[in-house]
Amino acid sequence: MTTAPSTRPHSGALALWPLVAAICLLAALVWTGSLPDVAPVLDVIASAAGEPNFYGSTLAGLGLLAGGLLAHRLQACGRRWQGFAQACGSGLWVPMLASALLGVAISNLMWGWTMSDGAWQPLFAPFVSVSPTVVLMFGPDMKTVLTGGVLGGVVTPPLSVLGADVICPWLGVPPVVGVTGGMAMGAVIAFAVCRHLPWLPALPHLRREPEPQPPVIAETHGPAWLLRRGLADFSEAQFFGSEWASIGLIAGVVVAYLLDPALPAYGSGLLPQILAAQALAAVVAVLLWRRQWSRRPFYPTFVPVVSVAPACVLAYGGTPASIFAGAALGAALGPPLAAAISSRLPADFHPFIGNVAAMALATAVIVPALQPLPGF
């Protein structure tokens, strides 16, 4: 993965001001009555952090952010139990998060009208695509945080909405195909634009190798590491990739389910089946591709956790066959496809593009192909 200059956790205090500005702007629009449907907008912003996992829950998003903050503090203090480094090991978790949340705020301010009939729309898309990756590629400067937030909020949502609402029904594939495909296309456009923005720093100066981390030889590739890595993959789509963030995410959505089983997972009532499929996909993917983890600093084993596995559960009603097939096939196909696409991208395009492209392709191939089989 491409990282920023240092792996030391960045304070990023100044990077939070664009987020504060976005919140003030939203509050002003609410105060003046420019946003008549305030509740759906605020709910999407609050739950955006958990949307990539198919949870659609405010508590899940808040849990992820709380766990991510804990992991950031543990990493900043050099604690033994800090877990996997967040923000691709760059130390830029705070400015990355500021840009991601700014992108979501802009997304809702610009494209919230698409929810006028109460329909769900993937306005969370900037949170896990262009906005954070611009910061990860070009650093934590104020202009970079703003650039990521604006590009993510303006470019990505309409493409994901078009994919989910128009293209996917026409093709007969799950909406996640359109959402992630829109993210990939939006990122290609955004990073092409970044080439011509004079205020962004020159990329070669930012493509340094991360500082070496203290080795953990005893459990590097043993059972404990496998379980930790599988757990961390639950929050990798948000560029957290931390066990603590994942624990907060899962705990939040479980609490939401216990309070009202009809709320999480878009009212499907299939949260237990989704969690089962995701856990199985995470463990199988890490187990299958453990050698790749030993050879590389990162391998996209998280891809089926937020695409094929939950999409298969929703498509086929959470049957046992849909849980096992979605997890196993997604774990087998998704990570190597993502790695292959990412390795062929231009140097100034963040490799996450390969990950979301693989999510779209793998889901479009696997989920419809299962329909004629028994148990689906």
UniProtKB/TrEMBL annotation:
Provenance organism: Mycolicibacterium arseniciresistens
Chain coiled-coil ranges:
none
UniProt keywords (A-Z) are: Membrane, Transmembrane, Transmembrane helix
Residues annotated as transmembrane: 12-34, 54-71, 92-113, 119-138, 145-164, 176-198, 237-258, 270-289, 298-317, 323-340, 352-370
Q: Does this entry carry the keyword Membrane?
A: yes
Name this polypeptide is given = Integral membrane protein
